[in-house]
Fold:
Amino acid sequence: MLFSELGLSAELLRAIDQQGYQEATPIQQQAIPLILEGHDLLAGAQTGTGKTAGFTLPLLQRLQNTAPQGNKCVRALILVPTRELAAQVAESVENYGRYLPFTSTVIFGGVSINPQITKLRRGVDIVIATPGRLLDHMQRGTIRLGGVETLVLDEADRMLDMGFIRDIRKVLQAIPANRQNLLFSATFSKEIKQLAGELLNAPMEIQVARQNTTVEQISQVVHPVDRSRKRELLSHMIGLGNWQQVLVFTRTKHLANRLSQQLEQDGISSAAIHGNKSQGARTRALADFKRGGVRVLVATDIAARGLDIEQLPHVVNFELPNVAEDYVHRIGRTGRAGLDGEAISLVCVDEKKLLADIEKLQRCNIEKVIIPGYEPDESIRAEPIKNGGNNNSGRNSRPNNRGRNNSSQGRNGRGRNASAQAPRGRGQGQRSRRAA
Structure:
């Protein structure tokens, strides 16, 4: 279905066309008409399916069709779990709203709050925010939420994983009860259903794929290997395949740094991205990776929900995640916008149960291929996997302090792990281009 068939305004269609898109994705085809009709929405879709445009476009059109309730009042509030995702959503709002008279701003932690205060005082129509920094502004009285007409929770499951539920409830108390609510989530857990019951009013529910599935375009393979030879095998595969862009996931920040340094020693340009890196360092690393300045980006699970890189061909699980659902989000960085992708997992004897959990979640067995010269030593015994303080992979590893030590937006500039986010990938002309 084309965007021109969805009832969008001429201004929005002009902006969509300027982005090079014509055909709407399934989530966009279903969500846009329902949102335009004013329904509350509970929407689930795999990563990389265009959820952002699915709510941004109709949100902008509804603002076109209604008058503001007061001067300098925020009319639409979009909550996201991480600062990079906030920046990506803000970019979409700017791109699609370029021919509309609305103003927007993005607010998140890890940077000075003063420029954000200045923008808010001038008055904005749309705010994209992470929960922690939004509460800072609420407590300072630097944001007015009494005119909010639409509330969007994007990546809601990730926000719950990161311990933001109390923050979300505080925000709900500060905005008008009479509003449209849109909840977008990659998965529909029991916790998401409970939140939806509290938040949504007679919602329409859509889900474009079975829960916790991976997109069909992603080929998955497991290479059994000894834990001590994983780095050697990774370097071998990158060199043999002449891979120029590879996203590699580790469980901990320490290993991400060490692996990046080891790959550099092997002559493979690499950078690491995780929560202990400053916002500037993460931004530079991602920019270098996107432009081809480095071949390998090593990331912890902070990036699993956020990294959005054009035509990313390879994702490697150097270590399997402790939480099976995070595997789905990790490999969802490839195979986006209808393009093919490859997900490779280097699995040692310690990770057999983690692999079994992933296969059970996906309801399928992943092909196992032993690389000649890297056959596992059957005499090596499994060792316990340490969760460690560096792992923030999700519910099973979240500490008792609501997950804030490792989450993404720290209050007053204290950092939380963040999912790096960049503009959606696009096709190369062989397929209809789709909006992110």
